[in-house]
Write a structure and sequence with these properties.
By secondary structure, the protein is an alpha/beta fold. It contains 21 helices and ten strands. The strands form two sheets. An eight-stranded parallel barrel has the order 1-2-3-4-5-6-7-8, surrounded by four helices. The longest helix is centred in the middle third of the chain and has 35 residues. The chain is globular. 48% of the residues are buried.
Length: 507
């Protein structure tokens, strides 16, 4: 294996807007959980200095971002970053816009932020340029990664020639592909193999390592929870195999939130998370993880998570196991789509009332992009997930029950072997089913009977109790029953917010 001359981050803070409560850095007097783009610089610093995250994702994809981030961090917190240098000890990693999916206005702005950051760090006599790698979301091909590298290189040369003569900028950027769908995750080794070949042709050098990002939210939104978790597990195994074949260190990252639907990473479930993501080296602690639990609990959980990731070993699968899981994933996606297509219109009014937490660009239009499922324009995964929890039907159930019931003995044995927390997860999720709310939904649209069938099938296999198990869950269930019956949008938003606080996540 190649020798790595840098620290690989284990804990990545992100700007995913899934928090129910007020962030700790806003102070005790604040009652507003919304975080403006300007305030995100304070957030980044507090994530480093208070929570001790290794890395913070600065998101240019589909949202507003402060281009003065490095200027402000260095100017406002010079002493801290003198001792904890960006690019060496702590890492600020840009998620770039995907110019094949949305307009590229932000791409040049992001790149022109990265280049003078190197100049500023040099003037401060810091050892490492602070911004040297970037995430490409929705990556589909090796050529996309090379094209972004080329654009950065050309811009770096232009700046060096025209604006900072005698003080040249580094002309390369390290790319982190973010594979979001089942297909790209499954075939990530093939895409990376092509990328390595193109990179060597372009530069005459070989890469010493790769960081590879696997989505856990949008994959679930697109094809359902069972399909998503299988995709993540297969990708982790195949990346490990590819790493061994190429004698190349690969450090997988997972983009997962606090809900089980979006990966199930919360301060309460560190051991469970490490079991379900074998071989993972970097985990995203999103806003709900950081802000919806007591600060000391969060700090302790981050330490536990870091230790676990540093010792996290990949799990091998036989070719037979992989092929069986691929077929199971297809079955589950079919069940999910059959049901979701009939329910999506009923949820639109809940989507519209969903509370906001960040300065997002509009999802559809000139500045945004739209994720679609079966031709329906979908909200972001956090809105989708939280909306279903709020109506008393956790999205994990949709399609999962009927798919699990359809498995033969071999398929069931292989699936449960690689999903060790299956029973525990759904026993917990069943607490957030509101029987009354679900019956109200069925009365308006009989298609919700398929979701009820999913719940019943899972209950018959896993033998769990349906409904609340404590006072908070009982209140959550009552609010769900109210939510599906009211028509006032403002009241809907208030109810969703109350539910989010009760369950420790927005979506």
């Amino acid at each position: 294996m190649h020798k790595i001359d840098r620290k690989i981050p284990n804990i990545m803070g992100t700007q995913h807007p899934d928090n129910a409560g007020v962030p700790f850095f806003k102070g005790d007097q604040s009652k507003n959980p919304f975080i403006t783009a300007y305030k995100e610089v304070d957030e980044a610093f507090n994530n480093f200095a208070v929570l001790d995250t290794d890395e913070y994702m600065w998101d240019w994809e589909g949202k507003h971002a402060d281009a003065a981030v490095i200027d402000r961090l260095y100017s406002e917190h010079y002493e801290y970053f003198k001792g904890h240098q960006l690019g060496r000890d702590k890492f600020l990693t840009f998620r770039l816009p995907n110019i094949w999916e949305e307009k590229g206005y932000s791409l040049m702005q992001a790149m022109t932020t990265m280049l003078p950051a190197e100049d500023f760090a040099r003037d401060l006599s810091f050892e490492q340029r602070p911004l040297f790698e970037a995430i490409l979301p929705m990556a589909q091909t090796s050529e996309q990664l090379i094209e972004i590298e080329d654009k950065f290189s050309k811009l770096a040369h232009f700046k060096s020639d025209e604006f900072t003569s005698g003080s040249n900028n580094t002309d390369h950027i390290e790319m982190i592909p973010l594979f979001e769908g089942f297909k790209t995750q499954l075939h990530s080794p093939e895409i990376l193999k092509e990328y390595l070949q193109l990179y060597e042709q372009r530069t005459g050098q070989s890469l010493p390592y790769l960081r590879v990002f696997l989505a856990g939210s949008d994959s679930a939104l697109s094809n359902g929870f069972m399909n998503s978790i299988i995709g993540n597990k297969l990708a982790l195994t195949r990346l490990h195999e590819f790493s061994d074949q190429k004698d190349l260190p690969i450090f997988p990252i997972a983009g997962t939130g606090s809900t089980i639907f979006r990966g199930g990473l919360s301060p309460k479930w560190i051991k469970r998370y490490l079991q379900e993501f074998p071989g993972l080296k970097t985990a995203t602690v999103q806003s709900a993880f950081r802000y919806d639990y007591p600060l000391k609990q969060v700090q302790s959980a981050i330490k536990e998570l870091r230790s676990g990731l540093q010792n996290n070993q990949a799990v091998s699968m036989t070719d037979r196991e992989q092929n069986v899981l691929i077929n199971v994933a297809k079955k589950s996606a079919d069940c999910y789509h059959e049901t979701l297509d009939q329910l999506i219109n009923d949820l639109q009014k809940i989507f519209d009332a969903f509370p906001k937490r960040r300065d997002r660009r509009q999802h559809v239009g000139i500045l945004g992009y739209s994720r679609q499922v079966d031709g329906y324009k979908m909200p972001r995964a956090i809105t989708f997930t939280g909306s279903l929890y709020s109506v008393g039907v956790p999205p994990e159930f949709i399609g999962f029950g009927r798919a699990l019931m359809s498995l033969n003995a071999e398929e069931l044995a292989i699936f449960t072997r690689h999903y060790p927390n299956l029973r525990n997860d759904f026993t917990f999720l069943a607490h957030y089913i509101s029987v009354d709310a679900l019956e109200s939904l069925i009365a308006k649209n009989p298609a919700w009977l398929e979701a009820k069938k999913d719940i019943q099938d899972l209950q018959s296999i896993l033998q769990f109790e349906i409904g609340p198990s404590n006072e908070k869950e009982e209140e959550h269930s009552r609010l769900a029953s109210d939510l599906v019956k009211i028509s006032d949008p403002t009241t809907r938003t208030l109810l969703i917010q109350k539910q989010a606080v009760l369950r420790n996540f927005l979506g």
